[in-house]
Amino acid sequence: MFDAIHMRPCGRPTKTGNPCRAQFSGRGFACKIHTTDHEKQLVDAYEQGLRAGREEGRRQEQQTADIRVENLERQVRTLEEKLDTQNRRFEIDGHQCVTVGRYAYVWTGPGRLKVGDRVLLPENYVSALRQGPGPQPGTVTALGSTYTGTHSKILSRLPASG
Prior knowledge:
- By secondary structure, the chain is α+β, with helices and mostly antiparallel strands.
- The protein has two domains: 8-85, no CATH class; 91-157, no CATH class.
- Helices cover 35% and strands 20% of the residues.
- The protein has helices spanning 37-87, 125-130; strands at 8-9, 23-24, 91-92, 95-100, 103-107, 118-121, 136-143, 152-153, 156-157.
- The strands form two sheets. Strands 3, 4, 5, 6, 7, 8 and 9 form a seven-stranded mixed β-sheet that branches. A two-stranded antiparallel sheet has the order 1-2.
- Strand 3 (91-92) and strand 4 (95-100) form a beta hairpin.
- It is rod-shaped and about 110 Å long.
- The mean pLDDT is 90.
């Protein structure tokens, strides 16, 4: 009775005593003329419950999706760390390999660099476009690199700023 979508006759008795032939569809018991206040309240309560149930379902679905995303992100981080551990190189041809920002470089100078050391990086195509021509300063963000291609050489160590 509540979920029927198709058109159906009211069927309630009219003033003449004959069944009402008005057609109605959707939730309800009868046409608008013959629906009692109590029936209207029942339909309103039903629709309110239906809305509340849908909203709760959406909320739980979002909560489940958030938990799933969090678990997948954790798995990705774990796998990235595992892969990083397997592929990270700290030396290339006897020279220290470091990461500056998002790029890998080789330090051929004296001593060892550590995270936080300021260095002078050679000009490359991207740095020339972004910062202009000439060498650019940078800061060592990680020791070693997972990059397998050719590494540029760090030009020099810069004095600590501060």
